[in-house]
Amino acid sequence: MKVVLGVDTSCYTTSLAALDPDGILVADFRIPLVVKPGGRGLSQSEMVFQHVRNLPLLMTQLRQSIGNEARISAVGTTVRPRSVEGSYMPVFLAGRGLALCLGEALSCSVFKLSHQENHVLAGLWSAGGISDPEFLAAHVSGGTTEILRATSTEEAIELELLGGSVDLHAGQFIDRVGVALGLPFPAGSHLERLAASYAADPPMTPISVEGTRISFSGPETHVMRWLGKQPEAAAVASSVQYCIAGSLIRALRCAAEQTGLNKVLLVGGVAANSFIRSRVADALLKQCDISVVWPESRFSGDNAVGAACWALSRLAG
Question: Quick check: pTM over 0.85?
Answer without folding.
Answer: yes
